Amino acid sequence: MTYSIARLEAATISSWPSITSALDGMWLARFARGYTKRANSVQCLDPADDGEAEARLARMVDLFLLNDREPLFRITPLAGPGVLAALDAEGWESFEESRVLAMPLEADFAELAPVRFSDATDRNWLEAVAALAGLDRRSQELLDLIVSHIAHRQAGILIRDAAGEAAAAALAVDAAGIGVYHSVVVRSDLRGRGLGRAVMHAALNWTRSVGATEAAIQVVSANTPAVNLYTSLGFKEAYRYQYRRPR
């Protein structure tokens, strides 16, 4: 199945919003006070909009410095050749390749563990994710803020262990018919026991139940266990992206 990169990008961007943003033509700069690179980078949304790239890149650098952030460019297949040439001319280096995986949502997955669904702004879910991911207080506050900006239907999904402690969690968002998944995390002492699969089954089923017909997830290419989990669920690679930064 061939997926529209523009449609997948729209879904992944809107399902993980920034706190503030700015546009220069179809170049989108997003800022979330440093919480995740995806929400703190600039990207081009139209490969045809690559004119005057060096001047626009300079404006973007100034904008990032104004917002007290390290300039980052997220390079997807929507970045035109003029964008790449400007970054090369300025010596911006590439790092951290990620994959966007997608699949159709055609049938429900088996329920592998009891799960609790809540609004993702629910304090119990947010605190559970913060604890599972080892977030400090500032990062937890920024996670709270980002989640509160999600305009689409969303759900916080949580699995607890026999003692009632948080064991695994995920955020599921129905972004205009595409289920997108974030903050998928399993407690470190419970990894390798199928809880990641269980929480993803629940997340996929939830998005299908509210009308999503496709699913997408972003994963760092070097995260082999996560890549293997998602591909075993039926996800296939749609495209890759990477970041670039000034040397």
Structure description:
It is a single chain. The protein has two domains: 5-99, no CATH class; 106-212, Gcn5-related N-acetyltransferase (GNAT) (Aminopeptidase, 3-Layer(aba) Sandwich). The protein is built from seven helices and eleven strands. It has helices spanning 5-15, 53-66, 81-89, 123-133, 137-148, 195-209, 224-232; strands at 20-24, 27-31, 42-44, 73-75, 93-104, 116-118, 153-160, 166-175, 178-186, 214-220, 236-245. A hairpin with a 2-residue loop joins β1 and β2.
Write the layout of secondary structure elements.
Layout: H1 5-15, E1 20-24, E2 27-31, E3 42-44, H2 53-66, E4 73-75, H3 81-89, E5 93-104, E6 116-118, H4 123-133, H5 137-148, E7 153-160, E8 166-175, E9 178-186, H6 195-209, E10 214-220, H7 224-232, E11 236-245
Parallel strand pairs: 9-10
Antiparallel strand pairs: 1-2, 2-3, 4-11, 5-10, 5-11, 6-7, 7-8, 8-9
